[in-house]
Specification:
Blueprint lengths: L2 E8 L7 H12 L4 H22 L8 E8 L2 E8 L6 H5 L2 H8 L5 E6 L5 E8 L9 H9 L16 E4 L5 H12 L12 H10 L2 E7 L5 E8 L7 E9 L8 H15 L4 E7 L4 H8 L3 E10 L16 E9 L6 E4 L5 H10 L4 E4 L13 E7 L4 E8 L4 H14 L4 E7 L4 H5 L9 E9 L2 E9 L14 H38 L1
């Protein structure tokens, strides 16, 4: 369900000026409003200026392609240039581009240095759909609905029909999420845009299981986010159970049915991001056979409202990351920083993941001259990802500059992803607390293997007392993550104080 709308090959500097207008016209064709079209054009100008400036010398022939693609729910702009690989640390991916993504000029940006092939930049913009949150009739009908008390069968379970979600269920799912969470679009904007959700369901990107009451209303929902055809892992989430059906273990029943379906489709594992303001979703993940593998501090926007639970609405909230394996997990060798060996081994042992763990490293690992990084920026959540594909001699300076720039751009959570199959990770990952990076967890079977995830909280009011956990491993992991976060915070504060102190000395001398 991906359609190439148009493409443009740019071979001269003068021809670059044609591209922004083409993007704006395509956005108009797909129904984006005037303001969105103007912002997207401005962002395109910034990206192309950066590519031409940094990837090509003054006397180089310009060689880049621009594609405009219609995907389920999105317009996507893809820029492929065959210039010099851009170095995120040396020249820096343009700070203004990152700032424009955060401000909502687009919904996401992915940048990848592809070595000799050049660079690839993808900009995603959600298309405009009618939102039920703006439909007064929908609001009135939903709030006026009085669901009957659940019917309990002879087996003691509530009577529901659990089945795969279809495109015809989208309005019922929207009503369910409103009854459960209210219009907290930062958490699940797609569920309040029925036409967009129907496209994702039809394309297989929103693979969901629903529970339907005897009177035909959807009272439960669980979905897997599947971004790539043929993927064998995905992110399971968007769990909602109608408040009337809570405490009937309905989430567990939906989860079992959903996993059985995933097995039939050839999936081998799923991630789950469970909320920590209450234990419901964590307990459901544990009952479903998943185990904690990380705790992402402040990963959940402060715009999410939980009906029926007490929580500080002004603070971003933590998400507990779970991973569940459905079948035979590949045996892998991983290279972990010594400081995190104990917690990583405990995660592997509890999750029954077959891994050979090494934490020894060379003092000066052999690397290329230049590091290869990917940057992924997300507007809706205010989260930035820096993914390390290959280490270079410039790694520490590259990473430090990139993290600092993202802080300046006011991304509230910065996640750094390090490949655990690469021996140099055990070396470089040991000292990153000095940059304010602390342990968040691991992602097993992420792309081509496991990865270590470190996190940096940027001007976030963290509420540790609100982080509830549902197991012994969860308690241990929470303590490790919070302790490491505090140590990283203390180290950066000490470093900043030292710099300020030296600056005052120099000022006094002068």
């Amino acid at each position: 369900m991906t359609d190439l709308l148009c493409s443009l090959h740019v071979g001269t500097r003068e021809a670059v000026t044609l591209a922004p207008g083409l993007v704006e016209d395509a956005a108009d064709l797909l129904g984006l409003g005037s303001a969105d079209r103007t912002r997207l054009r401005a962002l395109t100008v910034e990206v192309l200026d950066a590519v031409v400036r940094d990837a090509f010398e003054a006397d180089d022939t310009i060689d880049l392609d621009l594609e405009i693609v219609r995907e389920p729910g999105d317009l996507k702009l893809v820029v492929r240039d065959r210039g010099a690989p851009l170095n995120l640390g040396a020249t820096g991916y343009p700070p203004r581009v990152a700032e424009l993504i955060r401000l909502g000029f687009a919904d996401g940006l992915t940048f990848a240095n592809e070595g000799r092939a050049g660079n690839r930049t993808e900009i995603a913009k959600h298309l405009a759909y009618d939102k039920v949150s703006e439909d007064e009739q929908f609001i009135a009908e939903t709030e006026a609905q009085a669901l009957p008390e659940p019917t309990v069968g002879e087996d003691g379970q509530v009577v529901v029909d659990i089945r795969p979600m279809t495109a015809d269920d989208v309005v019922g799912v929207a009503r369910l999420f409103y009854r459960t969470y209210g219009y907290t679009v930062a958490y699940a904007p797609v569920v309040y845009e029925p036409e967009r959700l129907a496209e994702l369901v039809t394309s297989g990107q929103h693979l969901a299981t629903v529970a339907v009451s005897p009177d035909g209303r959807i009272v439960g929902h669980l979905a897997s986010e599947v971004r790539h055809p043929g993927a064998t892992t995905g992110k399971i989430g968007l769990l909602a159970v109608d408040p009337l059906y809570r405490r009937h273990k309905l989430s567990l029943r939906i989860g079992f049915a959903h996993v059985a379906r995933l097995l039939e489709l050839g999936f081998v594992g799923q991630y789950t991001e469970a909320v920590t303001v209450h234990l419901g979703s964590q307990k459901a993940a544990l009952r479903g056979g998943a185990h904690e593998v990380g705790l992402l501090l402040a990963a959940q926007s402060n715009e999410l409202d939980f009906r029926g639970f007490d929580a500080d609405e002004q603070a971003r909230k933590a998400l507990m990351l779970f991973y569940g394996s459905f079948g035979t997990t590949p045996q892998r060798t991983v290279y972990v920083p010594p400081t995190y060996r104990e917690v990583i081994e405990k995660i592997y042992t509890t999750g029954n993941l077959p891994r050979t763990v090494h934490s020894e490293f060379e003092r000066s690992p052999q690397t290329a001259a230049q590091s290869t990084l990917r940057l992924n920026l997300r507007h809706e959540t205010g989260v930035a990802f820096v993914v390390v594909d290959a280490y270079g001699e410039d790694f520490l300076s590259v990473l430090q500059q990139q993290v600092r720039q993202l802080q300046i751009n006011r991304y509230e959570l910065i996640l750094v992803v390090l490949p655990l199959g690469e021996p140099a990770t055990s070396y470089y990952g040991s000292g990153l607390q000095e940059m304010g990076l602390s342990f968040a967890g691991i992602y097993p079977e992420y792309e081509d293997g496991d990865v270590l995830v470190l996190q940096n909280l940027n001007n976030v009011d963290l509420k540790p007392d609100e982080i509830e956990v549902a197991s012994d491993l969860g308690t241990y992991l929470r303590d490790v993550v919070l302790r490491d976060y505090q140590q990283a915070t203390d180290r950066t504060a000490q470093r900043d104080r030292s710099r300020a102190h030296m600056a005052r000395i120099y000022e006094a001398i002068e």
